[in-house]
Specification:
With 392 residues, this protein is an alpha/beta fold. The protein contains 14 helices and 17 strands.
Length: 392
């Protein structure tokens, strides 16, 4: 059998950083054979400029919004941003497909091997059907009122069925599940419908991106009222609970789900403690996904990452969409985290981007680390420039 051997400035195995005296050995298709000391590696070693790392896991993206690149300006604030996404996403179908394909190609080339991808439509199916990236498709349900919850839910079930059908012969394994969009778009009965069909599944929800989200549940007022007006609603359609959003919606999930909380930009310490304790007591698993460049793009703010580390949260990374980021690059996410949180060790951030992400998406047996028999992709990462390229 033929082998390839790689040596970089450092080698990250999915859990720890090893120095330049370690060599990664794979077969020519990329399946890991071993990591050995340089003195035992023999000849024909390929020197790589940068850190050698397993392929990146992008746990949160909206590939279908790739046509919105450069359409919504940075720093609008979340409410205006959401209004823009709703009112500006209509483009010619050919352009949408062209931009989806270009974004998928960009992610593949910069080392992303698996994506947790949000969609309201099946627009991404054509590109995914021939993609060399693995996709966890989150078909995102929106339904503001109980009155329309059944009809809306059935619509998104049909979207999910279309994706499953179109991707059944794809070269890599894909999964498709229904998920709620956010606490400010899901009525009580819609939450219950989603809970019923997602037993023991991985789901995601946008969580506490803005202080107005908590205000909405505590008082029924706040800036989200302007967002609702786009849909003909003059007041909040949701029950006033007097509690933060996560304390209001997390109890809807009772079926041993893995719940990926996205963004968490304005999630206070007391809600992290509540969420973790609630999950432990009710057989849920929580994953905290951070998309720091999207937070900077929309709000020019960053989540308190050290708080989540201190609370032993399972942390992963995402890029969000081209409507809210300058690029779809986990390498750039790593660079920004290093810039804003220099005390966090690089190995910790890389684990979020690789093995933690693979575990979150349920592909830890094949992706996320350089362990014998896995085929996680081989990536060269240059942290100084925030660039990466897939080399195998």
């Amino acid at each position: 059998m033929s082998y390839r051997k790689f040596k970089g400035q450092q080698l990250f195995d999915g859990y720890q950083l090893l120095d330049e005296t370690h060599v990664l050995i794979t077969n020519t298709q990329g399946t890991v054979a071993d990591i050995v000391p340089l003195k035992e590696a023999g000849d024909n070693i390929e020197s790589v400029d940068g850190i050698i790392t397993p392929g990146f896991i992008n746990c949160h993206c909206h590939l279908e919004l790739s046509h919105l690149k450069d359409v919504i300006p940075p720093h609008t604030g979340l409410i205006d941003f959401l209004c823009s996404v709703v009112t500006k996403r209509g483009f010619d179908a050919a352009i949408i497909q062209e931009r989806i394909a270009a974004a998928e190609k960009e992610m593949y080339e910069n080392g992303i091997v698996a994506v947790g991808d949000i969609g309201n439509t099946a627009d991404t199916a054509t590109t995914k059907a021939s993609s060399n990236i693995q996709w966890q498709n989150f078909v995102e349900v929106l339904s503001f009122t109980d009155e329309k919850s059944a009809d809306n839910f059935n619509h998104y079930q049909n979207v999910a069925a279309t994706l499953r059908t179109k991707l059944q012969n794809a070269p890599l394994q894909h999964r498709t599940t229904l998920v709620p969009h956010a606490p400010y778009t899901i009525s009580p009965n819609t939450f219950r419908l989603i809970n019923d069909v997602t037993k023991e599944q991985l789901i995601s929800i946008h969580n506490q991106e803005h202080p107005a989200e908590d205000e909405l549940y505590k008082t029924g007022a706040g800036p989200y009222i302007n967002f609702f007006k786009i849909f003909g609603l003059m007041q909040s359609p949701f029950p006033v609970t007097g509690k933060s959003s996560i304390r209001s919606y997390l109890p809807y999930f009772t079926n041993r789900q893995q719940v990926m909380l996205i963004h968490n930009t304005y999630m206070p310490q007391e809600d992290v403690v509540f969420a973790n304790e609630y999950a432990q007591q009710n057989n849920l698993s929580l994953i905290y996904c951070f998309c720091i460049n999207a937070n900077l793009y929309i709000e020019n703010n960053v989540p308190p990452l050290q708080q989540f580390i201190n609370n032993h949260c399972h942390m992963v990374l995402g890029t969000d969409s081209y409507s809210s980021n300058w690029q779809l690059s986990i390498a750039k996410e790593i660079q920004s985290i290093q810039q804003y949180f220099p005390a966090i060790p690089l190995a910790t951030i890389l684990q979020w981007a690789t093995s933690n992400g693979a575990t979150a998406l349920g592909w830890q047996n094949t992706l996320g680390s350089f362990e014998k028999g896995k085929k996680p992709g081989v990536v060269a990462l240059r942290t100084a420039t925030g660039t990466a390229e897939r080399i195998l």
